[in-house]
Amino acid sequence: FTMETKSQLLQLLGVPDRISNNFEAAIFPHVFWDSVKCRIQTFPEEAFISPLPCPPLQFALVNESTPIPANVAAEFLRANPKSLESIWYKISIIAVCQNKYISGDVLQLLLDL
After folding, report:
1. 68: DSSP letter
2. Which of 14, 44, 101, 107 could form a Cys-Cys staple with 29, CB 3.0–4.6 A?
3. Number of helices and strands (H, E) in the chain?
4. Is residue 57 a contact partner of residue 80, using CB atoms and an 8 Å limit?
C-alpha cells in the first residue's frame, strides 16, 4: 500500500509505506500517543480499517521506541473490541510480553478483558 491509502491513524502510528509480516524487523518512529488517542476518539472506524495484516492495535503494541500507554490501548479497545477476537487476542498478549519497554498496565488491561 502507499501513503495515500493509509489512514491518518496509521500515519500517526508511523506505519511505513512498505511493511512485511515481520513487525519485529520494522523500525518504529516516535509516536505522539495523545494525537493517536484523539484520532481514535474522532474517527473510531480507523481503529479497525487497515491494509495491515493485523488490526492497528497489534502494530502499536510492538512499538519499542515509544511504547503505547494503557489509556491509548484502552481507547483502541473501546473503538474496536473485535481487535482482540480469536488469534489477535493471543498475539496481543505475546506482543506485550515480548516488548520489554511496555508498561505492565497495558498487559493488565489485556488480561482483565
Report:
1. P
2. 14
3. 6, 0
4. yes
pTM (2 d.p.): 0.82
Closest CA to 92 of 104, 107, 76: 107
Q: What is the pLDDT of residues 35-55, one digit of tens each?
A: 999 999 999 999 887 776 778
Q: Which of 65, 73, 71 is nearest to 92 (CA)?
A: 73
Q: Give dist(CA 6, CA 67) in Å, integer.
A: 21
Quote the cell numbers at residue 41.
Answer: 476518539
Specify the DSSP class assigned to residue 77: H
Q: Which amino acid is at 97?
A: C
Q: Residue 81 carries which side chain, given as an amino acid letter? A: P
Positive or negative torsion for Cα 108, 74, 89, 102: negative
Q: 14 in the Ramachandran plot: left (φ > 0), alpha (ψ -120 to 50) or beta?
A: left
**Looking up cell 515480548, which residue turns up?**
98
Q: Which grid coordinates are listed for 95?
A: 506482543
